[in-house]
């Protein structure tokens, strides 16, 4: 299990665990829930923000938010 | 004919003045009365 | 008699909800505001069949009914307010076929409110290309609803959509999930406190700061206090609700949706590789901005010259045709030149809105958000501040409203405070005319000086916005939780209809709103300039004759006119102000234009046009009149020093009452607009002063 911000772009993973207290509800609504597929599409300069894909949703989130998402490689 | 022109000028002046006053000074009261029916529970 | 049906359009952002709205209503739509708040309210009429009229409301795009911003509150309030005139008979949730799963979250929430709900799946024509297949009867059964497949790109499926909606009474209104199962004890208590209400509605009210008709909010909060749940407990319940809804949706889609990823071709990743590239992404963004500003200046010069001379001719013709008199003078010297001063900028404003709406429609704007977030955070802003800063080049008012989706309050407040520094379209007229007067012809690497100057002014505006943001981020001590989520939608070719309607709607509003103010101000200005107190004004002929007996008749007439103007009411006002502004290089006439600019900046040109027309009967274009103004020592009034000083004054000064009003509304305090007014205007004065003293 690794933190999302440590994941390399293009590598497919599954959301394992989220920090429900810290993660904004909006992100959960967008599908950031355990069990869903996640990958990093691209990173902005200085690796922040991150362009991620959760199921079919393409989102940008900041690195600090990514630290509250834990994933498992598949 | 001159008096017609004078009256027209006075009318436009009053109209312009009223418009600006309503727009910038009495704006608040107006918008409340016009847009809000009593149920809407404005913020 | 025709019947009327209230239809509410809901949906995630970027699903083509507004395209559907545009297709249904065309130009019959009205854009206004929800009462008391600054959320844009779009409504329009559409004939569903010969006898039934659909009154369609395009609600703001949201991802769920869990309100985290005012946009969502508007949606919830409309859906909960049974007695409101906008309460929908039927609601339509517009979804994107490519991301049905996430889109259905909102659908299940809306359906649970017990309003007949139709599910619209947009971009159905793309299914094959994307490798998606849907089993509609299965989905209809599983979701317990009616589904309409449409494609707003080629207007397909609209007739079926209209037919389906007419049968709204047959739609099921049963909830998709039973909210009680999330936390039995909590919801039982809630239900006991308000026995006759739907539990789900109560739940929405509890979790959101929304007014609820017939239920006193205080009593609801009492009921929840009684169970002593903390906000974080409520949030956890909301998460549970979301998870439960997704479980339901996953089940449904397992039966009715098949995706064959192999056959999918992906344009997105190809574009993204270039457009948000770590290096090229920024270069491309800069080139796009430069192109926009160059073309605004270049492409609009022909229609602008045409409009300018048309208005000059109109004044001339009316003057000859109408009987002589004071009202004719008001018309030809006051109203027409004043209105000409706004109509002339229609081409530039239309181009600006055209480019901005194309950037948004294509999906490029959110890539810019992604590119700029890290950099802007250094200045205390958010990547999302890009949208206000760029749309601030059209008008600060919608830009301030666009800050609403910035989640962090401090970042949002700073964005609101600095947005008025960006060069809005109302400054464009002022810059355009001053640049054409004082900046020489010539070009530099194929870019002409005038275009470059305009671009520089835009950059100065952005630069000052960033600098001010940086200062504010260091000085304001506001703690707020920070997060940032932005969707990067698919790239799309902009729909001509959407772009066209946006440009038309925005330009029309700009012209009518500013036009009314300018009309009123030019009438008053003309009167103040044409009448004056005392002997100096009323006996001007004799006084001039006494002092300058040697002048011929023509010179005498000019002298008398300008002597009269100086002693008119407005002349006296201007002369009183002159000591304050002469260190900046301005004369009293510019001073008057500065004051009237507080109603709207673009009034500047019209004001000068009116003043010069009163002074000089010769009908000429505004530009020529300004060019022929001279100082006491015979030098032109508008030279490089005074021109640039004036442009910088306009760049920095807070001269827009409407913006102040919107800032007051959005920040809910007088403190911030007051700081803006004085801070920006004093800054403008100092910079204009230094510029003029340095250049003159």
Descriptive report:
The complex is a heterotrimer of chains A (74), B (43) and C (696). With 74 residues, chain A is mainly beta. Chain A contains 2 helices and 6 strands; from the N terminus they run ββαβββαβ. Chain A has a 6-stranded antiparallel beta sheet. With 43 residues, chain B is mostly helical. In chain B, 9% of the residues are buried. Chain C is an alpha/beta fold and 696 residues long. Chain C folds into 3 domains: 1-265, P-loop containing nucleotide triphosphate hydrolases (Rossmann fold), CATH 3.40.50; 281-299 and 348-475, no CATH class; 301-338 and 515-695, no CATH class. In chain C, the strands form 3 sheets. A 7-stranded mixed beta sheet of chain C has the order 2-3-4-1-5-6-8, sandwiched between helices. A two-stranded antiparallel sheet of chain C has the order 7-9. The interface between A and C is medium-sized, with 29 and 40 residues. Strand 5 of chain A pairs antiparallel with strand 12 of chain C.
Features:
heterotrimer, A: 74 residues, mainly beta, SH3 type barrels, six-stranded antiparallel beta sheet, 6 strands, 12% helix, globular, C: 696 residues, alpha/beta, 3 domains, seven-stranded mixed beta sheet, 32 helices
